[in-house]
Input
Amino acid sequence: MSGQTKRQRNTDADRYYDRHKRNPQARAFYRSAAWQRMRRLILERDHGLCQECLRHGRYTPATAVHHKQELLERWDLRLDPDNLESLCDECHNRMRAGPSTAEGLWFDENGDLVPVG
Output
């Protein structure tokens, strides 16, 4: 890890985001049996390790499965294994924030971007 303490998943924050901020179509998809099956398969395929951390020589347990191309922008790729990768929370937050705002920012418990630290 890059000198920072990893945050534990905040299930209350996840539920808040899911209920109040997530697109209804995406919410329904992420609750589907098809997604749950695919998520398990991707985590197994990637041996439960964060693929972004591996690219940097770090071994970090994965907690999320990330759509490389945004779900709502490429709905046709929502269950394509080539568009999915396992990530830890830290890397997933960076990916969701995008390249221009990722450095030094996190999603807080309300799903808002805030400075790290």
In short: The beta strands are 64-67, 84-87, 105-107, 113-115. The chain has a mean pLDDT of 80. The two ends are 15 Å apart (CA to CA). Residues 33-45 form the longest helix (13 residues).
